Every structure is written in structure tokens, then in C-alpha cells.
């Protein structure tokens, strides 16, 4: 770090998410600066780097990580590129914030887990940003008090206005329900032991060959059930909601009623149109928390184990989607490094 303790961050990937993180670190986050950006598209990397004084542009993650002013890495490249970048960062013993998924499958996630275990200390935080959303944090705190009793069921709804053109049926699980996978494990404090994916009649608004919506049921080792309605072509906006049903009460978040208006014979509010808008504060809080912890020499937040568990659950979910029926989730024994 510089003499003033400012964290020099290399941002890998300058697409929608990566460019937004560059903006966030440059304009919102304290104690950090964007020292380098990396993208396979050299011109795009140069354009993003030009917005930040002293930021260099690279096409090779290893070159950026070797730069003397880079102290930490934020990975926002496509999922299939994560493993190589993570292993390089661990080779350099650099702190990492890696956007979800940690890696696209359990086998590659285990390779990252083994590399970090051999290093002997945690270096990687996985970007499950809902843990930093004010409403989810409030719900987690309430559950931890025990006031509502033991959680029995968790109902999740996850809706997008429209899916990207490259989206496939399995990506509804691996790219979208991955969030509810982590939310279920985090809120309930349980591991997911089995997944069943049900296939309602596809919406007429879904592209051809896209199974949308889907209904996912998780079973947990604590005896709770968690269901997810995933609907990525709902047409009207972006919604994420959760309701936990406990022995002595229920709690619900995500209704989006921060402001309700009455006008022209109607009442209502606005609906966010994408995840960047809905979770802007959560992303800000996540990155600031990561920077603060890194400057203290600590690693907090979702771990490589959490990334691996999510990947294993999503793999089971895709098998259930493809083959039908209930699919069990088999996790390796949790290393002591991850408590």
C-alpha cells in the first residue's frame, strides 16, 4: 500500500459489473484506488483506465498482479475465467474480492479451495452481495435473536424484467438461483442437502427453448425447506423478496415500499429495473467492508467454502432441471480454515 495506506486495487474484467466497480472504488469507496484494470478487450480496458488518474490497462491478469502498486484484486470477469485469476492471485498472496460465482462448478471451486488451504490463511472473499443489503442484514439479525423461534421455511422470489439473449435454462440456476443458494445457507445457518427443480409451463414472454419460470426447492441439514421462484422474463422489473416462516412468527423483506405515492386515482411505488439499481447500496457496503478489512490485514465475508457450497448446490440443481426429480448435494468435509 502507499504511504497513506491507500489500497491499490486491480479490477479484472471491465464489462457492466467491472466498470461499475471501477466507478465505485474511484468515486464512492474510501481508502482505495483503482491501480490497474484488466480485460481481454485491450481497447475497452484502455477506455476504462483513462477515467482514473494513474490507472494502467492490461490484457493479462498476471501482469496487473505483478505491478508494484497493486495490493489487492477485484475479479469481475466472466465466471469461466475466475479460476485462473484466483489461482494467480493466491500465488501472489493477494487479497481478493471475487464476484459470484467463485467458479462455474464444484470441481474448479475445490481446486481454488485447496490452493487457499495450502496457503494457510484466507485471502478470498466471494461477492454474495445480498449479505450486505440493509434488508437482508436486518432479517439475519432478527433471526439470530431467536425471537421468532426456529426457522421452518424460507420463501424466495427472484424476478428479472427480461433475460439476456445468451441466457440458457441452466443459467437460471447457476447465475440467478446461486444468490438464493447463499441466502438460504447464510440466513438459516444450514447446509443444503438436496435440490428439486420443478418446471411450470414456460411463459409466452420467455425466448424459445428457455425454461422460464422455474420453481426450486432446497432441503437443509437443519430440517428447513427453502423454495425459490425464479422468473427472468416477468416483464415489469427486477424484484427480490424473501419471507422466513418460524415457529413463533414470520418476517418478510423486499416489498420495496420505502415510498408509496397516491396520485391520479392510483397508489403505488417504483420497481427497480435491474440488479445494479436494486442492490447499489449493498455493492457499496460490500466493497467498502472488503477494503476496510483488507487494510486491517483481515478477510471477512463469504469464503471460498461458501463459493464451493453454492457451486455444488447449483450443479445438483442443474441435474434436477435436466433429469427431473430430487438430487442430493454431496459436500467434501469442511476444512478447519473455514471454521
Short description:
The protein is an alpha/beta fold. It contains 10 helices and 15 strands. A 7-stranded mixed beta sheet has the order 12-11-7-10-9-8-15, with helices on one face. A 6-stranded parallel beta sheet has the order 3-2-1-4-5-6, sandwiched between helices. A two-stranded antiparallel sheet has the order 13-14.
Layout of SSEs?
Elements: E1 7-12, H1 16-27, E2 32-38, H2 42-49, E3 56-58, H3 61-65, E4 72-75, H4 82-91, E5 96-99, H5 106-119, E6 124-127, H6 134-145, E7 151-159, H7 171-188, E8 192-198, E9 214-220, E10 225-231, E11 239-246, E12 249-253, E13 261-263, E14 266-268, H8 275-278, H9 280-295, H10 304-323, E15 326-328
Parallel strand pairs: 1-2, 1-4, 2-3, 4-5, 5-6, 7-10
Antiparallel strand pairs: 7-11, 8-9, 8-15, 9-10, 11-12, 13-14
Amino acid at each position: 500500500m502507499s504511504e497513506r495506506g491507500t489500497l491499490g486495487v486491480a479490477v479484472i474484467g471491465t464489462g457492466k459489473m467491472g466498470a461499475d466497480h471501477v466507478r465505485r472504488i474511484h468515486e464512492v469507496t474510501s481508502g482505495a484506488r483503482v491501480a490497474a484494470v484488466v480485460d481481454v478487450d485491450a481497447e475497452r480496458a484502455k477506455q476504462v483506465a483513462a477515467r482514473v488518474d494513474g490507472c494502467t490497462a492490461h490484457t493479462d491478469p498476471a501482469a496487473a498482479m505483478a505491478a508494484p502498486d497493486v495490493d489487492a484484486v477485484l475479479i469481475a470477469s466472466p465466471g469461466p475465467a475466475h479460476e485462473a485469476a484466483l489461482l494467480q492471485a493466491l500465488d501472489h498472496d493477494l487479497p481478493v474480492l471475487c464476484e459470484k460465482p467463485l467458479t462455474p462448478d464444484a470441481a474448479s471451486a475445490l481446486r481454488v479451495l485447496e490452493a487457499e488451504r495450502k496457503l494457510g490463511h484466507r485471502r478470498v472473499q466471494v461477492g454474495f452481495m445480498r449479505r450486505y443489503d440493509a434488508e437482508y442484514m436486518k432479517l439475519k439479525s432478527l433471526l439470530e435473536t431467536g425471537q421468532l423461534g426456529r426457522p421452518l421455511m424460507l420463501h424466495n422470489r427472484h424476478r428479472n424484467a427480461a433475460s439476456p439473449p445468451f441466457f440458457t435454462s441452466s443459467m437460471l440456476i447457476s447465475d440467478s438461483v446461486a444468490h438464493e443458494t447463499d441466502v438460504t445457507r447464510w440466513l438459516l445457518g444450514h447446509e443444503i442437502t438436496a435440490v428439486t427443480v420443478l418446471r411450470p409451463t414456460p411463459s409466452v414472454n420467455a425466448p424459445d427453448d428457455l425454461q422460464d419460470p422455474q420453481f426450486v426447492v432446497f432441503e437443509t441439514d437443519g430440517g428447513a425447506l427453502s423454495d425459490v421462484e425464479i422468473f427472468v422474463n416477468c416483464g415489469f422489473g427486477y424484484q427480490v423478496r424473501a419471507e422466513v416462516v418460524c415457529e413463533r412468527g414470520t418476517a418478510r423483506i423486499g416489498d420495496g415500499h420505502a415510498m408509496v405515492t397516491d396520485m391520479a386515482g392510483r397508489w403505488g411505488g417504483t420497481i427497480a429495473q435491474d440488479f445494479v439499481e436494486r442492490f447499489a447500496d449493498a455493492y457499496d457496503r460490500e466493497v467498502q467492508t472488503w477494503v476496510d478489512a483488507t487494510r486491517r490485514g483481515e478477510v471477512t465475508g463469504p469464503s471460498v467454502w461458501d463459493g464451493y457450497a453454492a457451486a455444488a448446490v447449483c450443479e445438483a440443481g442443474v441435474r434436477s432441471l435436466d433429469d427431473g426429480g430430487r438430487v442430493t448435494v454431496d459436500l467434501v468435509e469442511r476444512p478447519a480454515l473455514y471454521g
